[in-house]
Amino acid sequence: MEQTRRIRVVVAKPGLDGHDRGAKVVARALRDAGMEVIYTGLHQTPEQIVSAAVAEDADAIGLSVLSGAHMTLFTRLTELLAEQEADDIVVFGGGIIPEADREPLRELGVQQIFTPGATMAEIVEWVRSAVRPAESPAG
């Protein structure tokens, strides 16, 4: 019987923003949906987040950004993923992100932005549909 490995998601809270309740709620919802979740904690740099994602063989990175620094943080994250030849990792985010910034973020490679009011079911289903986990050998 063919088995696929569980989706692996790094959930990160970059920058100086110290409010991580939303990130923890999303991490728990993804975990409860059967995904492996690595929560990196508060005050992470894009370098630390990409390093964790590469080391953990992550399928996706989800950033929670409430500080207003989303353009800077997502830009640096996507640059680092490209430098590490890891730009196949799906990048998504959530937080207070103005409508005017969403298209520029998509152009950077951020595949989805969830704003306040998004349901956990919506986020879980989006991650499932956006990520195609690599197949692992049966056994």
Keyword list:
two-stranded antiparallel ribbon, globular, alpha/beta
Report on this model:
- It is a single chain.
- The protein is an alpha/beta fold and 139 residues long.
- The protein is 41% helix and 22% strand.
- The protein has 5 helices and 7 strands.
- The strands form 2 sheets. Strands 3-2-4-5-6 form a 5-stranded parallel beta sheet, sandwiched between helices. A two-stranded antiparallel sheet has the order 1-7.
- Helix 1 (21-32) packs across helix 5 (120-130), helix 2 (46-55) crosses helix 3 (70-83) and helix 3 (70-83) runs parallel beside helix 4.
- The radius of gyration is 14 Å and the shape is globular.
Termini separation comes to 9 Å
Total strand segments = 7
Tell me the β content: 15-25%
**Oligomer state of the chains in this structure:** single chain
- Radius of gyration (CA) equals 14 Å
Strand pairing plus helix content: what structural class?
alpha/beta
State the strand order across the main sheet. Answer: 3-2-4-5-6
Proportion of residues in helical segments: 40-55%
Q: Number of DSSP helices?
A: 5
Largest beta sheet, briefly?
A: 5 strands, parallel
User: Spans of 5+ residues with little confidence (pLDDT < 50)?
Assistant: 133-139
Return the average pLDDT rounded to an integer: 92
Note the topology.
Layout: E1 3-4, E2 8-12, H1 21-32, E3 36-39, H2 46-55, E4 60-65, H3 70-83, E5 90-95, H4 99-108, E6 110-114, H5 120-130, E7 135-136
